Amino acid sequence: MKQTLLAFVLILSIGFKSWSQCTPTWPSGGGAGISPDSATNLPHALEGLAYDATIQFKAPLDTTYLGFPVVIDSITIDNVTGLSAIPNISPFTYVPNPASGVFPGGSVGCINITGTPSIGSNGTYNLGVDVTASAHFQGSTQTIIQSYTIGFYKIVVDLNNAVPNVNKSKFDLAQNFPNPFSSKTNIAFNLPSPSQVTFKVYDLVGNVLYQKAILGKVGINTVDFDGSDLLEGVYFYSISNGSGVLTRRLIIDRK
User: Fold this and answer.
1) Torsion angle in degrees (nearest 10) through CA of 68, 74, 78, 80
2) Measured by CB atoms within 10 angstroms of the end CB, which terminus of the chain is less buried, N or C?
3) Could you tell me where the DSSP H helices lie in the chain?
4) Could you give the CA distance from residue 48 to residue 112 in angstroms, rounded to a whole number?
C-alpha cells in the first residue's frame, strides 16, 4: 500500500498536558493530513525540566488506494523510536490512549510523550512513529496491511541557562542538579571517547560512601544518585576515567 495511505490516515496535533495519560480530543471539521508538519514539528524541551507533550489524532473511516475505495479497519501505533537516545533524568516514554495502541477507523486517540532531559543534553533528537494500517477494499474481505514509519518528527532540547552546563568538547563533569537536594539528584559528565569510569560519593574526610563503575559512551552520560540514606550535609562526588579525576560538591538538605 502506498505511503500516501498513511500520510492521510492520521491527523495529528501537538499540545502540552499536565498528566501522564492523555485524553483523546478532536475538533469538529477538518480534513485528512498530518499536523504539525515537518516544519512545525514537536514542541521543544528544556534541559533539566519535565517534558510532557500529547499527540492527538483521528483515524478516518475510509480512503482510496489505487483508485479504489478502502475501508480503514484500524491504525496501530507500534512504537515511538528515538526516545531512548535522549540523555535523561527520567526516561522518555510514550503512553497511548487507548492503552492497546489500536485505534479503529473513525476513532480519536492520542499518545502522551514524557521525560526529563538531563543537564548537557541540548541538541536535536530524531524520532520515528512506527504505524501499521489495517484496511480492506469495500465489498471485499481481503485485508490490506501496511507498516510505515513517520520519520520527520524530532525533539529539540534547548540549553537551560538556569542549570549547570557541561563542556561537550572534553572530559567534563557538571554540577549535580538540583543542588541542594533532599533525596535524588542528576549528574551529567562528558566523555570524548568511550571509557570505563568510576563514580564515587564521599564525605568531607574522604570516606567513600557510594561507588559505581560505569561503561561510558562518547558524549553526555548521566548518573542518577539517590542520597536518601545519607544525613543532611555537604559531600563530594567524583568521576575518574583512569587518566584524570573530576570532583564537585553536593549538598543534601531536607528542610
Assistant:
1) 80
2) C
3) 3-9
4) 19
Is there a contact between 195 and 189 (Cβ–Cβ < 8 Å)? no
pLDDT digits (tens, 9 = 90+) for 154-206: 999 998 887 778 888 999 999 998 889 998 898 989 999 999 999 999 999 99
C-beta atoms surrounding 194 within 10 Å = 11
b/e map 159-180, b = 16+ CB within 10 Å: ebeebbbbeeeebbbbbbbebe
Q: Give the distance from CA 55 to its chain's centroid.
A: 13
127 with 149: CB under 8 angstroms? no
CB distance 176 to 187 below 8 Å:
yes
CATH class of the domain at 3-158 = mainly beta
Residues 6+ apart with CB under 8 A from 167: 190
Query: Residue 157 has which C-alpha cell?
Result: 532540547
Do 3-158 and 172-252 agree at the fold level? Answer: yes
Give whole-number Cα distances, 67 to 2, 148, 172, in Å. Answer: 12, 20, 59
Span 172-252 CATH architecture: Sandwich (2.60)
CA angle 109, 111, 114 (to 5 degrees): 155
Full-model pTM = 0.72
**All structural domains of the chain with their residue ranges:** 3-158, 172-252
Q: Is 168 left (phi over 0), alpha (psi -120 to 50) or beta?
A: alpha
